[in-house]
Input
Amino acid sequence: MSSDRIAFRASPAPAAQDALVALTARYGQTDLDDAEIVVALGGDGFMLHTLHETEDMDLPVYGMNCGTVGFMMNAFDHDNLPDRLSAAEETVINPLEMLATTKDGQLIRALAINEVSLLRAGPQAAKLAIYVDGKLRLEELVCDGALLCTPAGSTAYNYSAHGPILPMGSDVLALTAVAAFRPRRWRGALLAKTATVRLEVRDPEKRPVMADADSRSVQNVLSVEIRSEPAVRHRILFDPGHGLEERLIAEQFA
Output
């Protein structure tokens, strides 16, 4: 991986801004349009922001952790950055595409690297109908919400909702309920990456629902259709032996 033209990006956090000053003084700064590689300084949230920012550019992104968890990041170090970039291993992931229809007739599209979630937006539980590839699979899920996640996002909100961790090469998506009430403790489903999932909101006036795709929120949705978007590729770089596959395995034995 060439490291001659690096575009550094940093979150607003003081630690990330300090790192930006130090690294650009040492290695230079390249405009994004002329860059060969992007180095993102921050936490996982900023890494997602950077991947979305560059999703039409087919640029590899190498993250260095200046945040808290840093699941998608590499360890921070001022030294030997060109060598680390040259040795880095690439993981390619595809995001999910969300098409949300709202009560006022809007059709809103957004991409999600981790997950698309539907969440109740009022005091009462949501009621959702679930279709997979056009076939009704669950007539009524009474819950606080539901989400569909990629393998890369399976250790995030999905795991907190007791969903499974998915291996990177599995070509599988996880459909997970958030606090399911009926069917009681429904644990969700594993679906092929090629599946199209449609979630329809029952009684949206009484039980309003919002949708979220990597923190892009849509209020008052009537339905959401979700599928993998193979036309968009996110190229993420990791130090050897510390890629997403290893991290997903290690997380299950933590």
Notes: The CA atoms of residues 143 and 180 lie 4 Å apart. The mean pLDDT is 93. The longest strand covers residues 135-143. The radius of gyration is 19 Å.
